[in-house]
Amino acid sequence: MSAAATIPSVGRPRRLGKALPGALWALLLLTPAFVSLASVSFYPIVNGLYLSLTNTSLITQEQAFTGFSNYAELWGDPQFWNAWWHTIWFTTASTVLETVIGLGMALILCEAFKGRGLVRAAMLVPWAMPTVVTSKMFGWLFDGQNGIINYILLHAGLIDQNVNWYGSTDTAMITIIIADVWKTTPFMALLLLTGLQTVPNSLIEAARMDGAKGWITFWYIRLPLLMPTLLIAGLFRALDAFRVFDLVYVLTGGGPADSTETLSTLSYKVLFSTLQFGYGSAVSTAMFITEGIIALVFCLYLVRQIKRAQ
Amino acid sequence: MDESRKGPRSGSKSIGHVTIADRRQFLIGSAGLLGAAAFGAGTSLGIGRARAQSRAEISFASAAFFGKETFGDLIKAFNGSQDRILVKNIELPPPSSSTEVYQGLVQQLARRTGTPDVFSQDVIWIAGFAAAGWALPLDEYFPADKRSAYFTGTLDACTYGGKLTALPWFMDSGMFYYRKDVLEKHGGKVPESWADMATIAAAAQKAGDIDYGYLWQGKQAEVLVCDAVEIITSNNGAILAPDGKSSLINQKGAVEAIQFLHDTLATNKISPQDVLSWDEEPSRQPFTSGKAMFMRNWSYVYPIAQDAKASQVVDKVGVAPLPSFPGGKSSACLGGYQLGVNANSKQREAAIELLTWLSSTEVQHRIALNFGLAPTRPALFQDAQIKKEQPFMASLEKVFTGATARPITPEYAKVTLALQSGISKALVSGNVQAEMDATAAQIDKIVG
């Protein structure tokens, strides 16, 4: 090849291209990208799948192929299902709340008003904060003894004694959801704002000319046109929420009574506290499969939306 | 030997050049071998001085503790004190990130390369490291007569399968803090039974002298297991049977003890519900701000309670062994870091020498003064200088004598997760017997 390249190519500019068939060239150029993706993404997934079929443990030093026994154990493991349901509940609640509130914020930010640029920038602050910082902050806000939330609610007469936010199984998960909503709603708002800006102004003006009020314009014009963005944003958010780790790890460690244990914290404990890489990989793989199903559902909806639009 | 080591190195010249790192590696390797030889010859022939590069090179890994100096300074002192061994200090994360320290050690030990040669380990990892064959049994180096200088509870925690696989270094344990001024109003006698404690605490709470009678740690975390071990052992109960093959957590002793903890939240209400989400620091804060009468916590609280900048209760705090149930003995959960030698160490003699030095009376004395970490040798608690500079530590000998190890099993990491979850559920729901039955079944499956 180098020999071909050094031959003077005056008058024959296509010489190099002809040395290899077109398809091969394409493959050759794709190789670096493929190798880097395969080594950082494909290989770890396959290796994780393989580990989940073994009883690998750093402590017992075992590393034998055991087929699907980890999955059989997982199926009958109440800890796993407990964490699975909590994760689904967290994902659903936080995604729905963030989408609804984020949509409201996006609609406001879409309107022209003085200082809009500043508000748009300021809005992103919670999202830009490291989650661990958010977690610590909410830890103090919702502190059962000295927290400002209890103080405000108590003085407003909404509660008659301090609520034990993180120490009670009834409120611990809700508090974590509130923290997540506070943190990630701006991200949703930003995504939806870009979607809203693609809605042609002419359509809205035409609706106004026909006498449509704000609500009607939103319901019949903006929302249908926003639907694909909404679904994609929801998909992003749901997949991200499904992996919730930092908030739970910092705030409750999965307690009290396992009431905030999620799949990420469970797999972290199994993988890195007990060092059972086999079983831990099975938990992670189950998580991966569930995420796949969530993504599939969203994509089916999305495809249907697009087809309907056509 | 030198030539054979050189062989493969020059063979790898196909890459084109030998890096400085390669050369250094080689030098270190041969220096280590020479050093070991010199050490053997030096000690037997009485040759004191060896050339600097002929020192045996070993490494020491430990979680990073801070005080007036660091462990790096200790290692420097060792390197300066003799000329046969040169120790490289590998600093792991601080003890507050103990999961990361654990991972760091496991990854290095699992490679079986002999690095680190000497390491320090949390008491709860000892059995796991021993069962994996990573920790060298130390019986031949430390026969029974040398061990009697240490606390028995610490030695128990350092023993796995009848073999001593760790050497005691420094320790901590759970203890009972009380407010002297409030107690004065309510009889003045430090309660020795849990029932008395609950009665006094409820009375003081009712009289409005304090907001909370008794503070402990109920967060679903390792500290919950510590609190549980203490109260269960003080009722003659246990988490694991003596052979470590089955769980006793659903037996009478343990169930009564956990029931008592639940009662502090639900029945006599001497503890706030918030305890269920508190680990050490959140429970310490109300105590040092003067809101509570009794508290279970570690030794680190005392200096804070005596610091006028952080505490409202300076000179009002006393410390005693934790209460017990009728017929039981006060028990304190053992914590602290103990020393181990890597079973794959290529410099065993040098490693043992470092280990012996670190655990010696002189070095434990130095650690007590400079780091505030309590010695594992009871004799040091009578030391005049420690009594003068660390009077609180010196007063803890009685507390430490009752120190009890957490369940000794190579599966501890799994057992503790099951315990944290089960006890937390029992405390929340109040169905103590049912939850303990379920937890026992789970633990039986893990250790059986």
TrEMBL record, chain A:
User: Which GO biological process categories is it annotated with?
Assistant: transmembrane transport
Subcellular location per UniProt equals: Cell membrane
Q: Which UniProt keywords apply?
A: Cell membrane, Membrane, Sugar transport, Transmembrane, Transmembrane helix, Transport
- Indicate the transmembrane segments per the record: 22-46, 83-109, 172-196, 217-239, 277-303
Indicate yes or no for the key word Nucleotide-binding.
no
Record carries keyword Membrane: yes
Q: How does it sit in the membrane?
A: Multi-pass membrane protein
InterPro entries per UniProt: MetI-like, MetI-like_sf
One GO CC annotation: plasma membrane
Residues forming the ABC transmembrane type-1 domain are: 84-298
Family note = Belongs to the binding-protein-dependent transport system permease family.
Which PANTHER family does this chain map to?
BLR7065 PROTEIN, INTEGRAL MEMBRANE SUGAR TRANSPORT PROTEIN
Q: What is this protein called?
A: Multiple sugar transport system permease protein
Output the lineage of the source organism: Bacteria, Pseudomonadati, Pseudomonadota, Alphaproteobacteria, Hyphomicrobiales
TrEMBL record, chain B:
Q: Does the keyword Transport apply?
A: yes
Q: Does the keyword Signal apply?
A: yes
Q: Which residues form a coiled coil?
A: none
Question: What Pfam families does this protein map onto?
Answer: SBP_bac_1 (PF01547)
According to its UniProt record, where is this protein located?
Answer: Periplasm
InterPro entries the UniProt entry points to: Bact_solute-bd_prot1 (IPR050490), SBP (IPR006059), TAT_signal (IPR006311)
Q: Which UniProt keywords apply?
A: Periplasm, Signal, Sugar transport, Transport
Domain of life per record: Bacteria
Record's Gene Ontology CC terms?
A: periplasmic space
The record's comment on protein family reads:
Belongs to the bacterial solute-binding protein 1 family.
Matching PANTHER family, A to Z? ABC TRANSPORTER PERIPLASMIC-BINDING PROTEIN YCJN-RELATED, ARABINOSE-BINDING PROTEIN-RELATED
This chain's protein is named: Multiple sugar transport system substrate-binding protein
What organism is recorded for this protein? Answer: Mesorhizobium sangaii
Lineage, highest ranks first: Bacteria, Pseudomonadati, Pseudomonadota, Alphaproteobacteria, Hyphomicrobiales
